[in-house]
Design brief:
alpha+beta, 26% strand, two-stranded antiparallel sheet, 13 strands, 350 residues, 2 domains, Peroxisomal Thiolase, Chain A, domain 1
Length: 350
């Protein structure tokens, strides 16, 4: 007996209230990182060349002018992440024609803050989740987390056909801004990252309804732990972002992608990818033999929202769905590990 198909019934995205213009961020960062920029003059243009015009933040720009310790960052994370969870999850369920008490499983993905109990428990009463809902928090997947959450949610939905799986992906990357550090990675991160959230409603057995998730896969490259991640010290997270990333993508991305495309029987699928940054997009296009500028939705999300880590690829998916995604698509994002997470989608149902 074939496994039941998993449908993406609805999705929603959300951003925090503070819109930050890239020019204003650049002005503040140049003051904070004056010594680093003098030492590394090649970084001076990173705010212009990042392909970003604005981003959204859980805190106003002046919050970043002073130093903050772990307790302050955690308080800001809990307030901001709760609000984004409620916004994205509430709207996704509304669009699916469901209520919070209809949810059987919640997958919560977040790597930019620590909450114990985890976020879905903190908002359970306000959302109206049932006491017997299965809670699955996921930490540490970084930029790959959006595809990881969708893939895990799809597998859980497939295991229990008819049950509703809610996937919520929340990242507040800006709270990791470190004015007390001045590495190249810190400067580059200050030019890239923003805050946002996305929520997905999945269910197996609704044949012909919504976008179908037909297959999922991951590939982790050996000996690549130093490419991307966090360090932890008394002040907060410290970004790990290797300068070798674009070149690594150019050289190593194609093989696992082609293997998955073949396994999933995808024929010239539409690409829905995580836009990590302008250089990363160029590297992806080069690796996959795409014409430069092919990834238009990815560049538009990057321009208007920056790199929000895990939910970013879901913002790109939302744009594709609004345009009427039909036929086969490959959803993919890379993150710490170093890992690529992939999902095969089929649009045009229902």
């Amino acid at each position: 007996m074939p496994s039941p198909q998993v449908a993406l019934m609805a999705m929603a995205t959300a951003v925090p209230p503070h819109r930050l213009e890239q020019a204003a961020i650049a002005s503040l960062a140049r003051r904070i990182y004056a010594r680093s920029l003098a030492r590394y003059p090649q970084l001076a243009g990173v705010y212009v060349n990042a392909g970003i015009e604005q981003r959204y933040s859980a805190r106003p720009l002046d919050w970043f002018e002073t130093t903050h310790d772990w307790p302050e960052r955690t308080r800001a994370y809990l307030v901001g992440a709760r609000a984004l969870f409620l916004d994205a999850a509430g709207n996704a369920l509304l669009r699916a024609g469901l209520r919070a008490r209809d949810v059987d499983t919640i997958v919560t993905v977040s790597s930019t803050g620590i909450a114990t109990p985890s976020l879905e428990a903190l908002v359970a009463a306000e959302m109206g989740f049932r006491p017997d809902v299965l809670r699955v928090p996921v930490f540490g997947r970084g930029c790959a987390g959006g595809v990881v959450g969708l893939s895990l949610g799809a597998r859980l939905a497939q295991a229990r056909p008819g049950e509703v799986v809610l996937v919520v992906v929340v990242e507040l990357c800006t709270l990791a801004f470190r004015g007390d550090r001045s590495t190249k990675a810190d400067v580059i991160s200050s030019a890239l990252f923003g805050d946002g959230a996305a929520a997905l409603v999945l269910r197996a057995g609704d044949h012909g309804k919504g976008v179908i998730i037909s297959d999922t896969a991951e590939h982790t490259w050996p000996s690549t732990l130093d490419i991307m991640g966090w360090t932890v010290d008394p002040a907060g997270f410290g970004v790990v972002l290797s300068r070798s990333l674009p070149r690594f993508i150019e050289q190593r991305l194609a093989a696992p992608v082609r293997r998955f495309v073949k396994r999933a029987r995808l024929a010239a699928p539409q690409l829905v990818l995580h836009p990590g940054g302008a250089k990363v997009l160029e590297a992806v296009e080069g690796a996959l033999a795409l014409q430069t500028g092919t990834l238009r939705d990815e560049r538009e999300v990057l321009r208007t929202h920056g790199n929000m880590s895990a939910p970013t690829v879901l913002f790109v998916l939302e744009r594709a769905l609004r345009r009427g995604l039909r036929g086969q698509a490959l959803l993919a994002a890379m993150g710490p590990g170093f890992t690529i997470s992939m999902a095969a989608l089929e649009g045009g149902h229902g």
